[in-house]
Description:
Chain A has 315 residues and is mostly helical.
Amino acid sequence: MQRYIIRRLAFMVPTLLFVTVAVFALVRIMPGDYITAQMAESRGADPEFLDKLRAELGLDEPAPLQYFKWMGGIVTGDWGTSYWQNKPVLDVIRHALPVSAQLGTMAIVLAIVVSIPLGVVGAVKQNSWPDYTSRMFAVVGISIPNFFLATLVIIYGAKWFGWFPPQGYRNPLTDLSGNLQQMVPAAVILGMILMAQNTRLLRTTMLETLRADYVRTARAKGLNERTVIFRHAFRNALIPVVTLLGFQIITTVGGSVIVEQVLGINGIGQNFIGAVQQRDYPLVQGILLVIITTTLVVNLLVDLSYSFLDPRIKY
Amino acid sequence: MATQTTAGALRRDAQPNPFTTNLKRIWKFTKRNPLGAFAGLLCVLSVVAAVGGWTGLLLNHDPERFRGADRLLGYFAQSKVGEGTYFLGTDDLGRDMWSRLIKGAQLSIFFGLGVAVIAIVIGSIIGLVSAYFGGWLDLIVQRLVDLVQTIPLLVLAIAIVSVTGPGIMKGFWILAFLSIPRPVRVIRGSVLSVKNETYIEAARSLGATSNRVMFRHVLPNVTAPMIVLASYLIAVAIIVEASLSFLGIGAQPPTPSWGAMLTGSGNLFFQTNPRLAILPGLAISILVFATNMFGDAVRDELDPRLRGSR
């Protein structure tokens, strides 16, 4: 087990290195740079002046040199300065990351809390009204794209409840109700598709495990139905769900880009779109690096959780 | 030889008309899985809408033409400049919503099917070759696939589209490229499990070449997971196209795209005319619903283990 973890962690280093090169190259291929994006309004600006500005930002140096400078900075904790926000990249990320982390965590927790009872009940009481309800919910949930759901929430939130998405981030420590007013609708929008997917998958795998031989054995031993369902069937049905959960955390990062943009939440997603539009190289690179590291760690955790859920799996 | 002909003739006698046989098969499927059949019907209707938009047969107005006098009309409104009836009203520029939605179907269907076909064809070839030959080739392919999959599809699509500049065809090729890893994974997994079956060994010992074994013996046995994968890829491609257009970096105005309709006039007039946002949103949802449900139904049909357990 320990050796497996060490090997996996060691493998993350070359992957991350490759990813940084890819990210760096991708950002450099963008036609135009920060200077042209800024000067788009004022045509015919003195080219010499533009070159001077580029030199100040270090954009005139050859790309490989820029890359090594950037990598050196990553290691020493200096991720560069965002051109667009004129703040250190690490500061921007430090402010944006907790916002997105809160949103993502709430969405995923919500998805788990809702989908486990729905999926289990759907399977245990197959072809009954609760089952149809949970299936209908799941089918509708996976079909509505999050931006449409967000638009609906904005339209009918304003119409029926007089609710408008609050602008700017509310810190939960100082303004809890303001924070929740902002985050709960966002988490529901983001979590809807996750709930639906989880419910469907859990229902299907529960149906399969409930027919498995070991469940029949457990029943034959005279265990009560509760123990059979939760200790024997449910635990085994969780394995594919955990795999899905790993995928979902990655999807949630993508989804939060849209939800944050629509509801005006100043997290990683909104910063990413802004940074891409402004050609803010250091910020784009920094955010992509954070996102990719997160997904790598999540994938590792998912793989490790298998052996906890299924004692037959050993690393 | 003679026995074969007799068997063939017998089979033809048992099934006199392929048309009625297919109808019967569809009817059986409908009875077994009404929701799946309904979803299949919706899929067919969407394709009809797309073809109708492409040929112009289902458009009763020019979807891109502005009419100042006909702005923001309601359902079944009559045009004030003698252009007939607008079934679903008009948007803030006086453009016919019905025609725009149909034209949008054309874009979404083209995106979904095109991306899925390209990704599956290229992904299958890569996955097949990689799994069949194994070794360092397989290792490199798998690491590349892992790498692309570590980044959320939408984030990567946004980043690359910003690099190349907005545009619907750029978005299409980028999405097709980014969709390749998944078919590679699925095909590779299936091939690995099929590879050591006896019939493959038999084919090889008869002297079949690698190409022949791969395409005649391995590939037909991994088509079932491919069909399921196709419905997934189509749904994802439709949603990503709509998302990119929603963010303003996909289809550019005046091209009608459902995602762009939602964010453009839909967002501006959501309080007075929620119809402008809800109609395209519903259209996306229905198409994604139909694709998902139909894919599930087909999987259930193809996988005998799932029959009867529902």
